Amino acid sequence: MEKFIPKDKHDIQAVEECIRIGYPEIKPILPELLNWIQDMNWPVAQVLAPFLAENAEYIETEIRDILNGDDEIWKYWVMIEILGKSPQLQKNLQNELEKFANHPTESEQIEELDIIAKEILKKTNHVG
């Protein structure tokens, strides 16, 4: 499985191979692949994000951990690229979205996570 994990931010070949073999074969490395969307300016992130969004239900725990962490930029990208595109995950993580929408920290407000959460909640008719 190690060969399917990007070696650097330009290793699109590894990501494309991951996508080709798909789920459930790559299930063991899905959580590790989340690391590669910490910055959507990375070439691998742009290829990987849609695939992670399609498989979001399998990385719900890891996504929850990211949302409860302290990396606001990573939260931003996870909310935009994965959570915003996965209705089931939006439902499952509604409490987290409502926390961002209604009680954001100062740093979460700076990164506009409250605004993103409100947009996602509005889209799913669970306005925070």
Write a structural description.
With 128 residues, this protein is mostly helical. The protein has one domain (2-123): Serine Threonine Protein Phosphatase 5, Tetratricopeptide repeat (Alpha Horseshoe), CATH 1.25.40. It has helices at residues 12-21, 30-33, 43-54, 60-67, 72-81, 87-92, 94-102, 106-110, 113-123. Helix 1 packs parallel to helix 3. The model has no long low-confidence stretch (mean pLDDT 94).
**How does the major sheet shape up?**
none
How many DSSP E strands? 0
Strand content: under 5%
**Number of discrete domains:** 1
Secondary-structure element order, N to C: HHHHHHHHH
Concise description?
By secondary structure, this protein is mainly alpha-helical. The chain has helices at 12-21, 30-33, 43-54, 60-67, 72-81, 87-92, 94-102, 106-110, 113-123. The protein has nine helices and no strands.
